[in-house]
Amino acid sequence: MEIITKGSYETKDLGRKIGAEIKIKLDNARPKNASIIALIGDLGSGKTTFVQGLAEGLGLESRIISPTFILMRKYFITDFEKTPGSQPGDESNSDMSSTLEETQRYQRGEDVIPKKIGKESELYFYHLDLYRIEENVDAEIENLGIRDIWSDPENIIAVEWAEKSHEIISKANYLINFEHISEDIRKIVIMKNE
Ligand SMILES: Nc1ncnc2c1ncn2[C@@H]1O[C@H](COP(=O)(O)OP(=O)(O)OP(=O)(O)O)[C@@H](O)[C@H]1O
Ligand SMILES: [Mg+2]
Fold first, then answer.
1. What's the CA-to-centroid distance between 172 and ligand 1, angstroms?
2. C-alpha to C-alpha distances, 15 to 103, 136, 148, nearest whole angstrom
3. Count of C-beta atoms within a 10 Å radius of residue 6
4. In this structure, which of 26, 52, 119, 137 has its CB flanked by the most CB atoms within 10 Å?
5. How many domains is the chain built from?
6. Would you say the CB of residue 107 lies under 6 angstroms from ligand 1?
7. CA 82 to ligand 2 center in whole angstroms
8. For the ranges 24-33, 71-80, 158-167, which has the lowest average pLDDT?
9. What whole-number distance in Å separates Cα of residue 187 and Cα of residue 190?
């Protein structure tokens, strides 16, 4: 599938659609392994913009910050709709408010184990950026614990500069190529590997 976007909003919207598609699939059936979205393309071609939409489509409430300086960020996705009668920030549901608090702790980079609010509703989103890795990409990726992360179907992994890792490319469920056409125009090619 090939799409031309005419502004960052359209790229974000495309990400949102793919995110929602992945979420629906995962709610229906869990695959054997994590879902990998490999993003390829030059500087400023729209990868992070797409990931921001992708995260929204998956149901992530927090803002996606580019992980360029720390290689990887972890977020967790709480499916508020699946908990009857509660809304994000609803203090009357103690489980929900502690989950929100834990989300915020996650956002601050604190290592907390989220409370389970139902097995099916628990998903984790990892955002990686391999740009700064110059050599020994495989070793670096192994150090990040990618193999363990990949072995868990509750994980969704979006990888910028994925072309640096043959392993990531070979395991990817979605391979998405970004091309800078002009200031506001990008060509985005989506390949699904199902
Ligand atoms: N059609 C478009 N799609 C996406 N971004 C666009 C588009 N038109 C303009 N832009 C702008 O291009 C920039 C894309 O930046 P973004 O950080 O998403 O790129 P990136 O591929 O993640 O770059 P990097 O390799 O540095 O991480 C943003 O400033 C965005 O506003
Ligand atoms: Mg980026």
1. 22
2. 22, 30, 25
3. 12
4. 52
5. 1
6. no
7. 32
8. 71-80
9. 10
Instruction: Report the distance separating Cα 95 and Cα 20, nearest Å.
Output: 25
Distance 75 CA to ligand 2 centre (A): 17
DSSP structure class, residue 114: P
Return d(Cα 64, Cα 151) in angstroms, integer: 24
* 167, amino acid identity: E
CATH number of the domain where residue 138 is located: 3.40.50.300
Structure tokens at 13: 């919207």
Ligand nearest to the CA of 3: 1
Q: Report whether residue 67 contacts ligand 1, using a CB cutoff of 6 Å.
A: no
Q: Is the pTM of this model over 0.85?
A: no
| Ligand 1 nearest atom to the CA of residue 43, by list position | 25
184 pLDDT higher than 70:
yes
pLDDT tens, residue by residue, 112-150: 444 333 345 578 899 999 988 888 888 888 888 888 999
Choosing from 6, 49, 164 the residue with most ligand 1 atoms within 8 A of its CB, the one to mutate for a pocket test is: 49
| Phi, psi of 44, rounded to the nearest 5 degrees | 70, 15
